[in-house]
Specification:
- The chain is α/β, with parallel strands linked by helices.
- It folds into two domains: 146 residues, Rossmann fold (3-Layer(aba) Sandwich), CATH 3.40.50; 142 residues, Rossmann fold (3-Layer(aba) Sandwich), CATH 3.40.50.
- It contains ten helices and 13 strands.
- It has a seven-stranded mixed beta sheet with strand order 7-6-8-9-10-12-13, sandwiched between helices.
- α2 runs parallel beside α9.
- The longest helix is centred in the first third of the chain and has 31 residues.
- The protein is elongated and about 65 Å long.
- The termini are far apart.
């Protein structure tokens, strides 16, 4: 005999299950529709992939963004390799990307992105802006403190000079041999008076290509009262790592130092910035701003503070330079 009670109850249960599933589906739709869209961060890297310092800054940023929570876009300005016209075109393209993306916060690294993106469009950028890698000072850009803050890059040049002085090496002159770029022009404006005030005769050479760099390096070694600072090489055309290493080994006579780790192969030692620190700092501040834990107008401009010391021991031995034990240094391993 057919059990009508059983089948009636079974049917009610099925209908209830259907209603429950339907209600859960509606609840999920409501939940997701009520959630705020992901906050957007746009990052402009002044340089190109493969340039040591900015790669490290970018690594510090990317490793500390949870892309399941924040939407993240980035672009390269390519300022070290682009011509003036190409740089202007790159800046316009990136600005159009920023407008299309409508980010909630903008991050820029190094001076070129500040000059080419932030300064010309400041009135249109009604969002918080954070920078890092800006050399020495941001005062020349007249950035409003209630909208813009960041971390300056201060190179340990004076600390490097002190290390050489404590070693007992006598010097009265310094050659700074670097690329011809906007960033290096800014370095020159800061370093020339700073070094002159220390009683040094300053010879600042900004070169366009590798042949000119080699000539400048050889000349810098002809005066025993001279020392040499090698800031960077990213914009030097036709640069060749192997040839540069051989050239330095052949002509090295006086101390050569750097403040960037990728230049240590061509120097006797490097007291170098930890560029990743700047990326980590700027993205952590960005998240705090977006989470409303801090307001940008209460965020003071900071200075980088992490440095490493590397010894290029074969080159130090070649000229008899000994820095002693006043600073903890690593032996540089040429990979």
């Amino acid at each position: 005999m057919l059990d009508w009670n059983y089948w009636f109850n079974r049917l009610l249960n099925l209908k209830s299950l259907y209603r429950m599933k339907h209600l859960i589906y509606i609840a999920l739709l409501l939940l997701f529709s009520c959630q705020s869209p992901a906050k957007k961060i746009f990052y402009v890297n002044s340089y190109h992939p493969g340039y040591g310092s900015s790669d490290q800054v970018q690594e510090g940023i990317v490793e500390n963004i949870d892309t399941t929570i924040y939407a993240f876009e980035m672009a390269y300005l390519n300022a070290k390799k682009a011509s003036e016209a190409e740089l202007a075109n790159n800046a316009e393209t990136i600005w159009n990307q920023i407008k299309s993306n409508s980010p909630d916060l903008l991050i820029v690294s190094d001076d070129n992105a500040v000059q080419s993106i932030v300064v010309p469009h400041l009135k249109e950028l009604d969002i918080p802006i954070l920078f890092c890698g800006v050399n020495w000072s941001a005062e020349k850009y007249n950035l409003p403190f209630n909208q813009v803050s960041g971390m300056l890059e201060i190179l340990p040049v004076e600390a490097s000079l002190d290390l050489i002085k404590k070693s007992g090496w006598k010097y009265s002159k310094i050659t700074i041999l670097s690329e011809n770029s906007a960033g290096e022009i800014k370095n020159k404006e800061t370093l020339t008076p700073l070094l002159t005030n220390r009683g040094l005769e300053v010879n600042y050479q900004m070169v366009d290509d590798f042949d000119a760099w080699k000539r400048g390096f050889k000349e810098s070694q002809s005066d025993s009262s001279n020392i040499v600072f090698l800031p960077t090489n990213g914009a030097i055309k036709n640069w060749n790592n192997q040839d540069a290493t051989s050239w330095v080994q052949e002509h090295l006579v006086v101390p050569v130092f750097t403040c960037d780790d990728f230049m240590v192969p061509y120097a006797t030692f490097g007291l170098t910035k930890v560029a990743k620190e700047q990326g980590e700092w700027v993205v952590k501040r960005a998240i705090e701003i977006l989470e409303k834990k801090i307001e940008i107008n209460n965020l003071s401009v900071a200075n980088n503070s992490q440095f490493e010391c590397f010894l290029n021991e074969p080159l130090m031995e070649q000229i008899g330079l000994n820095l002693g034990n006043d600073v903890r240094c690593k032996s540089y391993q040429n990979e």
